[in-house]
Amino acid sequence: MPPSSFFSFVLGVPLLALALTPACSSNDDPPPRNGVNDVKRACEIRASWTNKGNDRCINCQVAAQSPACDCEAFKDFASLCKGQDDARRAEPTCTAELDACTKACTQTDCACIDGCYAQSAKCKQVSAAKDGCIADVCTQYCQ
């Protein structure tokens, strides 16, 4: 093989391999399931639930943000919002005072809950993902 052909071959193989490699992202995980991704709108969805007190609804709200388990009762929703819950727990601006503010609101006073986040945009962002996910995952069990 002449030297110029050799160099063309050596340089061409990696380029050909690169061209034939399918495009892929660095993260092939599905996007997070953040639902409406809005604190106030997620509250409004939860406020509209007519079966909030049934076991399946309560279990969904708890298990969706908890670690996965092999429990038959939780298999449809266990851990679906765990990543969002982890992100909220890790956010330093999500303080005990902010949690106390949202707990002081009635569960149907969505403007009050939304107002609690007025001073913490970052906590509101991660809370919106978590609340939106739970509303999205659990509506079918709570309506």
Number of strands: 0
Low-confidence residue ranges: 5-26
Count of spatially separate domains: 1
Task: Tell me the β content.
Answer: under 5%
Q: Structural class from helices and strands?
A: mainly alpha
Tally of helical runs:
7
Reported for the largest beta sheet, the result is: none
Oligomerization state of this entry? single chain
The first-to-last residue Cα distance is 74 Å
Gyration radius from CA atoms, angstroms:
23 Å
Average pLDDT: 85
What global shape is seen? globular
Q: Fraction of residues in helices?
A: 55-70%
Order of helices and strands: HHHHHHH
Provide an overview of this structure.
It is a single chain. By secondary structure, the protein is mostly helical. The chain has one domain. Helices cover 58% and strands 0% of the residues. It has seven helices and no strands. It has helices at 3-20, 39-47, 55-63, 82-90, 96-104, 110-116, 121-142. Mean pLDDT is 85; it is low at 5-26.
